[in-house]
Amino acid sequence: MKNSIFILGALAIVSLISPPAEADVGTISAKVVDQSGNLVAGAKVWMFIIGGKSQAGVIPDCVTDETGTCTRADLEFGKYHLTAMKEDEGYPDLSLNLFGHDKKRLFTEISAQTPIASVVITLGTKAAAVILNVVDAITDKPIPNPHFKLTPAEHPEAFLGIGAHKDPKILIPQDEDIIIEVTADGYKPARVETQPEATHANAVHLHSEEEREFTVRLQRQQP
Length: 223
Hints:
Largest sheet: 5 strands, antiparallel
Oligomer: single chain
Order of helices and strands: HEEEEEHEEEEEEEEEE
Mean pLDDT: 88
Low-confidence stretches: 1-21
C-alpha cells in the first residue's frame, strides 16, 4: 500500500511539473485566393515543417472550404513552409521542384508565444498540360503502365518522375522548355519530339492553360 501511495504521489508531482502534450501544438489557418483575389474552395494546402518530427512522418495538410480557408490545430511548434494546389483547375503542386524551383516560398511560424498563425496563399499562374498516349511502335496498341520523366531543360536538377499514371493528362510548367522522356518495361526509352516553340532538343514549350496531345511510340528492346 505504501508503495502504491508513493507511486501515485510521484505521478501527481510529474503531472504538475510537466505541461500536457497539447500545450506544445499550435494552429495555422490558411486562406487561398487566385491572382484576382477570388477565394478558392477545394484547394489543398500543404504545411511542411522545417526540421521537427513531421518531416519523417505524414505531412500536415487541409482542404479549403467555400470561404477559401482551412485550419490545422494540431501542429507542433516550429517554422513552416506552406504551398497550395488545385490540379483539377490547373494549379500545380508547387512543393514539387519541377514547378517550384523558381518560385518564392511562403513561410510562417508558431511557438509558445504565438501559437496561432494566419496566412494568405495566392495561387500562381495556371500550368500547361500534355496528354501522352504511349503505344507500341509496331502494333500501335497502348502500352500499360508507362513511366514519365519531366525535366526542365534549364534546371535539370528539378526533374520529376511519374510512374503508372492513370490519367494521360499531366501538368507541366508553363513558358519553359520541358523534356519529356517515356519508359516502359520491355521497351527502349523515348522522348517527345522537339516542338517548334522550344529552343532545346526534345523539349516541349507551352503557355499557361495550353494543352497539347502527343503519341509516343516505343520500340521493343531486343531479347
